[in-house]
Amino acid sequence: MKRTEFFSAFGITAGMLFMAPVLSSCSKSMTDSSNSNGTGGNTNGPVDFTLDLSTPAYSGLNNKGGSVVVNSIIVARTSAGTLVALSAICTHQGGPIGFESSAGQFHCPNHGSNFGLDGSVINGPAAAPLKKYNLQLTGTSLRVYA
Ligand code: FES
Q1: Residues 71, 124 within the same domain
Q2: Residue 43 domain-assigned (yes or no)
Q3: Quick one: pLDDT at residue 53?
């Protein structure tokens, strides 16, 4: 049996063979960009990274009110001096979360949602809390993990 006879026996055309890799890659892309827990944040894999607070990029976290966004997670030092890590993606429509140290809360500028230091909703329109991450400070090494 020739190759063309084999494919036509199963109703496969040359166009279908050409489209197979394209359809396969679209499916993978959609899976990679999904948000599996519905609470915002980086959920496309395990979260576990370390920030060196002795480097200029992260040294702001040594000061009360300092904050950085890394891997879609906002890490902040509160006015009380404690460190907090939350998803930096608003649970309403994905706006960028910022830290307002004077108010002691996290804020989304898109529609005005505010979140507490534990990620809970203070006021909407967001209805779901921000995902909270664990922190472990060893010297100047700050580990952020789920
Ligand atoms: S996207 Fe944050 S309040 Fe709407």
Answers
A1: yes
A2: no
A3: 97
